[in-house]
Amino acid sequence: MHVPAPPSASSDPADLSFRERRLLGRLVLPGGALAVALPLWLHAASPYLGTFDQAALPVLLVLLVLLSALSWTRLPLTWTETALVAVLNGFVVLRLGALLADSTLEAGTRAALLSTTLPWTVVALMLNAWVFPGMAALRLNFMVLCGQVLCMLAWWPQGAGPAPLYLMTTLIQLVLATLAVLSAQLVATRHTSLVTRLARQAMADAHTDVLTGLPNRRALMLALEGLAGPLTMDGPRLVAALVDVDHFKRINDDHGHPRGDEVLRALAVQLRGHQPSGGLVGRYGGEEFLCLLCLPDETAALEFCERLRSRVSREPLAGLPITVSVGVAVMGAPVHGPTLLDAADEALYQAKRAGRNRVHLAAPVAERYERQRTPVPVKT
Predict the structure, then answer these.
(1) pLDDT tens-digit profile of 319-359?
(2) Which intervals hold domain GGDEF (predicted)?
């Protein structure tokens, strides 16, 4: 069962998140470019960078500056974020592989350079978790870990044997840091998933009638807004049909309230089976049910409700012969929900008054709405 959501407000959390991410990107990207430019400037004064850093850092600087400029354009945010993720992850893995493959480096120099890979790795992993949702970020960070392990395995046969302890310790720290971020991310993802499931369950419970399992009154009001919104002047009309069990108090008095509950549950099954595509049926309150659907005109609405009434009267519910009275109101765009429901309620009263077990159509609801809107002249 799908309940149409009400129109979103201008303060939609998704829009706020988008604006915040755009602002953070405009702040973080220049900061990253500055962090890359600083070691290049220091290296120009006193050379200390390795071969890979001398070649890769200028490219990384250019890319970060370019992404900083693009963050101020209308380019989709996902494009710049994905490009930033690809650049940093590629830099981290390639730097590790290049440092391990460079046979000209001494063990101490290699260990020192590898230790500077650690902050870059943590930044890349955290950026992945920030840009991508849940499991996607987890899979991406796992791929980074696999890239690190593959680089180490490729280097191991030629370098692991005589490698000093501090070099092995540096590599182990790099892997452990990645595993720590992955573990924290996994816990956070599982917690977020649990909270999301609980929130969705709470939302479903808040919009579901406990006895019948149908949408409750709150859900019906939301659905009324959702169904009325897309209607056009020359399109289908919104139909509200209030279905009430005849002599329900007598059922409770003669057979007990548990039997009355069984009748309501059985009627809910009947109404759900009679629900047309695109329509919605729910428990309006007590022994009243509300059907909301879009149909071409009043004739189609009457035919639908008459079929529903006839079907209920032919089949015993919970072992009892049951009849229903139906009040029908039809309104074209623009739809005013309270007026439509008031008209259906009045039509139901007329059906009860006329002898029950019948369908009654309300007077044209649009005219009723116009009368309500017309101010009453004040006598002077």
Answers:
(1) 899 999 999 999 888 888 888 999 999 999 999 999 999 99
(2) 236-364
Return the CATH architecture of domain 217-373: 2-Layer Sandwich (3.30)
Backbone angles phi, psi at 72, to 5 degrees: -95, 0
φ, ψ of residue 220 to 5 degrees: the values are: -65, -40
335: its two tokens: 């739809």
Spatial neighbors of 259 by CB under 8 A, at least 6 apart, are 251, 252, 318, 320
What's the one-letter identity of residue 24? L
How far is 92 from 95, CA to CA, in rounded Å?
Answer: 5
Own/partner pairs, 366-372, CB within 8 angstroms, 24+ separation: 366/331, 366/332, 368/339, 368/343, 369/331, 369/336, 369/339, 372/339
Q: Are strands 237-245 and 324-331 parallel, antiparallel or unpaired?
A: antiparallel
Residue 229: closest CA among 294, 297, 302, 290: 294
Q: Which residue has the tokens 């200028």?
A: 58
Instruction: Outline where 207-290 has alpha helix (H).
Output: 217-228, 248-255, 257-273
pTM of the model: 0.55
Contact 239, 293 (CB under 8 A): yes
Distance, CA of 251 to chain centre: 43
Tens digit of pLDDT for each residue in 119-138? 888 888 888 888 887 788 88
Task: Give the whole-angstrom CA distance, residue 351 versus residue 327.
Answer: 7
Nearest to residue 138, comparing CAs of 192, 68, 189, 199?
189
What are the sequence ranges of the domains in the chain?
A: 15-205, 217-373
